Amino acid sequence: MIWLIVGISAAVLTTFSFIPQVTKIIKTRSASDISLTTLLQLSCGVFLWALYGLHIKDVIIIIANSVMLATLITAIFLYFKYRHK
Amino acid sequence: MIWLIVGISAAVLTTFSFIPQVTKIIKTRSASDISLTTLLQLSCGVFLWALYGLHIKDVIIIIANSVMLATLITAIFLYFKYRHK
User: Fold this and answer.
1) B62: which residues sit within 8 A by CB, 6+ positions away?
2) Closest partner residue to A48 among B13, B17, B46, by Cβ?
3) CATH number of the domain bearing residue B66
4) Fewest C-beta atoms under 10 Å: which of A65, B13, B47, B80?
């Protein structure tokens, strides 16, 4: 039971980890310190994790990585909008 | 075989995803646009993943998340050093 909670907490924390970054870029309208390489590399990684989840038919892996991919794509869009400000 | 490559690529890309961010902070000496909440939340998440990996005795999960935690701790240290510059 304790390990189920550890696993779920780990998944929830990592899945929603880029929401504070997205919120900060929107508030400050600035993104020049953020590494585009990190955003792109992490996006490719979670996209492949989601594909892998489809392959092994694991709904948690599919959902967690798809949600994280969506927030990362939002961060990339905002990076290009605000990188020079 | 193809799915093994997909899984390994996903793990390698995500594990080393914060190295470009760490490099960028060191080069620019600036970190004010980065969300500390994102760094802390992701650190807690990968720490719990590493614990979970210890529980299920999965060496890949332990190593991948420990390496990512080390780069995230480096990024947090650099954030406090350069956040006002």
Assistant:
1) B50, B53, B54
2) B13
3) 1.20.1280.290
4) B80
Q: What does the pLDDT read at residue A46?
A: 96
Of A7, A20, A33, the CB nearest to B32: A33
Residues of A with CB under 8 A from a CB of B: 3, 6-7, 9-14, 16-21, 23-25, 28, 30-35, 37-38, 41-42, 44-46, 48-49, 51-52, 55-56
Structure confidence at residue A64 (pLDDT): 93
Closest CA in chain B for residue A6? B48
Domains: count for chain A: 1
Range of the domain at B65: 2-82
pLDDT tens for A27-53 read: 999 999 999 999 999 999 999 999 999
Helix (H, G, I), strand (E, B) or coil at B19: helix
